[in-house]
Amino acid sequence: MIKRIIFKRKNNYILKFSILLLLFIFILYLISYYYFSNREYFIIPKFTGKYFVIPTNKEGEVVDYLDKKSLNNTDNEIQDLDFKNIDELDFTIQLYSNDNFENINKYLYNLLENKKEIIDHEDIFVFYKKTEIGTQYFITYKNYISKNNASEACDLLTIVKSCIILNLHN
User: Fold this and answer.
1) Which CATH class is domain 74-167?
2) What span, in angstroms and rounded, lies between the C-alpha atoms of 83 and 162?
3) How confident is the model over 99-111, as pLDDT tens digits?
4) Quick one: DSSP state of residue 160?
5) CA dist 11 to 20, 21, 64, 67, 154, Å?
6) How far is CA 27 from CA 13, 15, 19, 120, 166, in A?
């Protein structure tokens, strides 16, 4: 009988301890849930500074690429070679462009030789544009009144993978 009483007391202590532990864990969970759910995790401030700085005082270091020339500063003089006068061209499809005239001649010869059934010699325009970095040669195809017409023709054109439409008046 004494054993039963001692055993019952131990069971009561274990039961009370378990209930208190569970209650403590539950209260701790509620407090942490309330604390973390109402908290802003982090705030990213709006960036108002400069993304990059070009130093005025280089302290003896040489900054590379300050004197690069571009196609933006051009001599807007587009001239034709011996094929046609391109002043009447509005919109045209660029087939090939290179800065070496020999490559232009090779491409033009191959194009007219291999595609002579579908391309008329009169539809090909060759011209060049002088810029600060050199002369760029172009081979273009046909004259179109509007960009939409040239774009529709691009969809049907099989001699180039992707079309570049040139507006020669801009």
Assistant:
1) alpha beta
2) 25
3) 888 888 888 888 8
4) -
5) 14, 15, 83, 89, 88
6) 21, 18, 12, 87, 72
